[in-house]
């Protein structure tokens, strides 16, 4: 594992602290040596760009009054001690990896805000009855290895054994990728944190959706992270010559798929507030312009904040596709590839966070469900979780056009400061009752 000596320290920067500096730092991390691609942002786990990002983030942590280290899974962790040494920690974090051709704020903004908030308290010499830790997870997107949230799974204790035989699209194994940066595969699960070490996990994140912008709100509070199903649907017809096969005798897998996709959209729209259904990828075979398609495979992603709604939608989709395929004489299979349960955020934390939003903005907090997955889904196995959403322009994410307003990020910063202070008061009161 790399030592702290590998992290470079930097002089204090001159730009304003808080939200503005968090945005500036995300902008810095969006280019140059922090990306694997010259003209776009791509920062996969354990890449050279990821290593350089960790070095820079560690320097910012040290500058802000945190002690920085990397755990055995390659996550960067900064700690600001509480009033008592070795106190359990309130963990603030998000991820540092990215998808290909990414935006600059998905993930890193939460880490940068965490550093800013801790530095705010460090400058004032304020200590709490718990430690503050900021964590930048190495893999949330799953853009290199075929498992998302790999490193938060390790921290949450969901990987009791090292994930052997895992490799990326270039055939590089996780073991070799870890070894190239000074880590050991067998030590990977030792990134686990114990339940008595972490009292809560708090994740600030851009919304990645248009609700806050539509309602003209700078921030929102997440009540739950949506349950998700991912299926692979395969339709098999009969390929035939496009010029000689009569329309009435065709068993066209692609036209069946077209009708299927419209049915999926119809079912997804039936509960507009709580359900989304998406066909995101399709493969057509044989894929020639003069051949009636014989085979089609496509993905179906179904999400809802309520598992029963998600499950019912999946059942409706299955029956609808089965009926239309029988009518079109096309065979059909629908195979589950991923099942993520809904993750409710902790009600007490969410209440405190909502009150902080109202205190800072003067308006009642907008509470919403996250349709996107986050590390908080995994961290809920370790500790109570809560999330703060930050407005992003047009709801665009996973795209270079991803954008935030510095004033919104400053609001998020102020909410986080208020939340930690309020949570500390509640924590102390509870400790007194126990005593």
Q: Please, could you describe this protein's structure?
A:
It is a single chain. The strands form three sheets. Strands 1, 2, 3, 4, 5, 6, 14, 15 and 16 form a nine-stranded mixed beta sheet that branches. Strands 7, 9, 10, 12 and 13 form a five-stranded antiparallel beta sheet that branches. This protein has a two-stranded antiparallel ribbon with strand order 8-11. Strand 3 (89-95), helix 3 and strand 4 form a beta-alpha-beta unit. The model is unreliable at 8-13 (pLDDT under 50). By secondary structure, the protein is of the alpha+beta class. Helix 7 (253-269) packs antiparallel against helix 8 (307-327) and helix 9 (347-361) packs across helix 11 (406-434). It contains eleven helices and 16 strands.
Distance between the termini: 40 Å
Discrete helix count? 11
Structural class: alpha+beta
- Backbone CA Rg: 24 Å
**Main sheet summary:** 9 strands, mixed
How much of the sequence lies in strands comes to: 15-25%
**Secondary-structure element order, as H and E?**
HHEEEHEHHEHEEEHEEEEHEEHEHEH
Mean of residue pLDDT values: 93
Helix % is: 25-40%
Strand element count = 16
The low-confidence runs, each spanning 5 or more residues with pLDDT under 50, are 8-13
Q: What is the general shape?
A: globular
Write the layout of secondary structure elements.
Blueprint: H1 19-29, H2 48-63, E1 67-70, E2 76-80, E3 89-95, H3 108-124, E4 131-137, H4 150-155, H5 174-180, E5 198-206, H6 211-214, E6 219-225, E7 227-236, E8 240-241, H7 253-269, E9 275-278, E10 282-285, E11 291-292, E12 295-304, H8 307-327, E13 331-340, E14 343-344, H9 347-361, E15 367-370, H10 375-379, E16 385-390, H11 406-434
Parallel strand pairs: 3-4, 3-5, 5-16, 6-15
Antiparallel strand pairs: 1-2, 2-4, 6-14, 6-16, 7-12, 7-13, 8-11, 9-12, 10-12
């Amino acid at each position: 594992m790399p030592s702290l000596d590998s992290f470079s320290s930097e002089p204090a920067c001159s730009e304003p602290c808080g939200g503005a500096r968090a945005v500036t730092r995300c902008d810095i991390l969006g280019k140059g040596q922090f990306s694997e691609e010259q003209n776009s942002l791509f920062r996969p786990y354990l890449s050279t760009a990821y290593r350089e990002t960790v070095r820079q983030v560690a320097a910012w942590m040290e500058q802000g009054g945190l002690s920085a280290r990397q755990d055995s899974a390659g996550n960067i962790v900064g700690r600001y001690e509480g009033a008592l040494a070795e106190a359990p920690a309130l963990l603030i974090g998000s991820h540092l990896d990215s998808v290909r051709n990414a935006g600059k704020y998905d993930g890193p903004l939460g880490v940068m805000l965490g550093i800013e908030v801790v530095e705010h308290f460090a400058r004032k010499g304020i200590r709490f009855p718990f430690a503050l830790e900021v964590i930048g997870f190495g893999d949330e997107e799953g853009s290199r290895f075929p498992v998302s949230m790999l490193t938060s799974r390790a921290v949450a204790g969901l990987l009791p054994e090292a994930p052997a035989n895992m490799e990326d699209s270039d055939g590089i194994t996780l073991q070799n990728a870890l070894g190239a940066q000074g880590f050991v595969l067998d030590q990977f699960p030792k990134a686990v944190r114990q339940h008595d070490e972490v009292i809560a996990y708090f994740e600030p994140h851009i919304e990645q959706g248009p609700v806050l912008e539509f309602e003209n709100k700078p921030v929102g509070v997440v009540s739950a992270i949506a349950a998700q199903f991912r299926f692979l649907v395969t339709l098999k017809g009969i390929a035939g010559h496009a010029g000689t096969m009569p329309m009435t005798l065709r068993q066209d897998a692609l036209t069946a798929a077209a009708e299927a996709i419209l049915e999926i959209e119809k079912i997804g729209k039936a509960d507009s507030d709580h359900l989304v259904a998406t066909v995101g990828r399709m493969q057509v075979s044989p894929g020639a312009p003069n051949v009636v398609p014989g085979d089609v495979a496509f993905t179906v992603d179904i999400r809802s904040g309520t598992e029963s709604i998600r499950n019912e939608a999946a059942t409706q989709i299955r029956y609808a596709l089965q009926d239309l395929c029988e009518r079109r004489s096309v065979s059909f299979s629908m195979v589950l590839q991923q099942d993520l349960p809904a993750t409710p955020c902790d009600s007490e934390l969410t209440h405190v966070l909502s009150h902080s939003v109202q205190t800072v903005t003067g308006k009642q907090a907008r509470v919403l469900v996250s349709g996107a997955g986050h590390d908080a889904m995994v961290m809920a196995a370790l500790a109570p979780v809560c999330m703060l959403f930050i407005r992003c322009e047009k709801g665009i994410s996973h795209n270079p056009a991803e954008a935030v307003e510095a004033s919104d990020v400053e609001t998020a910063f102020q909410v986080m400061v208020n939340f930690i202070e309020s949570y500390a008061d509640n924590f102390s009161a509870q400790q007194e009752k126990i005593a």
